[in-house]
Design a protein that fits this description.
alpha/beta; 10 helices; about 40% helix; binds phosphoenolpyruvate
Length: about 260
């Protein structure tokens, strides 16, 4: 059985002080959340404060980005070892904002995922189609290509540690959510592709849905057989709202 994983992507929101305040309010709300993995991805400048606040809790720390190099002349960048030193357990790579705004390629994303692995950090690998690609019936081609290319550096023996986030670009920050059925269709295709890439380990890989997840839709999304969690932007910024998402209701016998 795959353990649900609910992750907050705060993007470029919250100063270190605001992030610390969130942690203080949030931890008591999820202290008895049960068998789920809960993850917070603050900005780089807040990682240290948040790491301190999370110590000894049931919530893990994630980075929103990483540079694949170990060190060197890369002004403004952060190396994977620096994130490991701060206690990051996860790292987001391939987010559509980085693909679109910073022109990140699948190869670059693959090298980031491999670099995180090398430092004991689980990559959360984001994939997803644009509205134009969906309307041209290219969703599965696009997502499949991103998936295979972005996971190219993942060692097969450790494939089960990867988290994939399916985030249709047209649903991110727009208030438009994929219906649970539509999301499930793509998740099932991703699952089958993961099986082709990694054999039985593909079945253990958790696939999150992302794109305007909120308290009103999380329960029905999480009831789908191949939706194992959520990557949440806007609705993760308020402690009560994200806590409700973490404490999703298990409908229809989903465990
Ligand atoms: C995201 O950026 O990963 C995301 C899913 O954002 P939102 O929840 O705001 O759509």
């Amino acid at each position: 059985m795959r353990r649900p994983i609910l992750a907050a992507n705060w993007k470029m929101h919250k100063t270190a002080a605001e992030a610390a305040e969130f942690v203080e309010e949030f931890l008591p709300l999820v202290a008895d959340a049960g068998s789920v993995d809960i993850v917070l991805a603050p900005t780089f400048t807040a990682l240290d404060r948040v790491a301190n606040g999370l110590r000894g809790s049931n919530v893990a720390l994630a980075a929103q980005n990483v540079n694949p190099e170990e060190q060197g002349a890369f002004t403004g960048e952060i190396a994977p070892g620096m994130l490991a030193e701060l206690g990051c357990r996860y790292g987001i790579v391939g987010h559509s904002e980085r693909r679109a705004i910073y022109s990140e390629s699948d190869d670059f994303i693959a090298s980031k995922a491999a670099a995180l692995f090398a430092h004991g950090i689980c990559p959360i690998v984001c994939v997803g189609e644009t509205l134009e690609e969906r309307e041209a019936n290219r969703t599965l081609d696009v997502v499949g290509r991103q998936l295979v290319a972005s996971l190219a550096g993942v060692p097969e023996a450790r494939a089960a540690e990867v988290v994939v986030a399916y985030e249709p670009v047209w649903a991110i920050g727009t208030g438009k959510t994929a219906t649970p059925e539509l999301a499930q269709e793509v998740h099932a295709a991703i699952r089958s592709q993961l099986g082709e890439c990694f054999g039985a380990a593909g079945d253990a890989i958790r696939i999150q849905y992302g794109g305007s997840v909120k308290p009103e839709n999380v329960d029905t999304l999480m009831a789908q057989p191949d939706i194992d969690g959520a990557l949440v932007g806007g609705a993760s910024l308020a402690p009560e709202t994200f806590a409700r998402i973490v404490r999703f209701e298990r409908l229809g016998g989903a465990s």
